[in-house]
Specification:
- The protein is an alpha/beta fold and 218 residues long.
- It contains 9 helices and 6 strands, in the order βαααβαβαβαβαβαα.
- The chain has a single domain, classed as Isochorismatase-like (Rossmann fold).
- The protein is 32% helix and 17% strand.
- Strands 3-2-1-4-5-6 form a 6-stranded parallel beta sheet, sandwiched between helices.
- Strand 2, helix 4 and strand 3 form a beta-alpha-beta unit.
- Helix 6 packs parallel to helix 7.
- The N terminus is likely disordered.
Length: 218
């Protein structure tokens, strides 16, 4: 595919791994948005296993892992009226913060001390403390994983690009509702970021029995 040939740009001195919206409501088989194709794509492409590998590699390399979750307070006071993306959230009571739906999938669970940024819109930079976290830690490169490739990953890459971060999209740890949309989004992403894979972007983590046994169960 065209995006696979994008030139590899150098990684900065201080990267961080962003885990974007890999929450139960979207990627767990029982999640309501999972039925829109995200659950099937996660299973078929083993995205959760690959994202878990990215997290292990980042931790082993002392690269900060920052989680981002989308959600709304009970009653959805932050809900954006007129948004097609979020129109079912308030209508059906989806994406309620503090519920199972907005928890990070168990296979990718944050460790104590790892930041979890809560957002109410597509971009994790909009109305959140993400940029403060990045600037305080001296981060200059963002490694992106998560869902969905054409909305959240693309929106994050665009916002990060315009804030002068280097951006690397770990394509095998991202997904859309179907493969065609995923590939189309990667072609656009290749214009503003380096599209790569987990194995290419992160050094292998030391093998442990727990890591070898780990796998995502549906």
């Amino acid at each position: 595919m065209d995006w696979a040939g994008t030139p590899q740009r150098g990684q900065g001195e201080r990267p961080a791994l962003l885990v974007l919206d890999l929450i139960n409501e979207i990627v767990h088989p029982d999640g309501r948005y999972a039925a829109d194709g995200y659950g099937a794509q996660a299973r078929e492409r083993r995205v959760l296993d690959t994202a878990a590998d990215a997290i292990r590699r980042a931790r082993a390399a002392d690269i900060p892992v920052i989680y981002v979750v989308v959600g709304f307070s009970p009653g959805h006071p932050e809900w954006p009226a007129g948004s097609r993306v979020f129109e079912k959230a308030k209508e059906d009571g989806r994406l309620v913060l503090g519920s199972w739906a907005t928890q990070v999938h168990d296979a990718l669970a944050p460790r104590p001390g790892e930041p979890v940024v809560v957002k109410h819109r597509i971009s994790p930079f909009h109305g959140t403390n993400l940029e403060v976290l990045l600037r305080t830690a001296g981060i200059d490169t963002l490694l992106l994983t998560g869902v969905s490739t054409e909305l959240v990953v693309l929106g994050t890459a665009q916002a990060a690009h315009d804030r002068d971060y280097r951006v690397r999209v770990l394509e095998d740890a991202t997904l859309a509702g179907d493969a065609e949309i995923h590939d189309a989004a990667l072609k656009i992403l290749s214009r503003i970021s380096t599209v790569t894979t987990v194995a290419e972007a992160l050094p292998a983590a030391p093998s442990t029995p727990a890591a070898e046994r780990q796998g995502v169960r549906s």
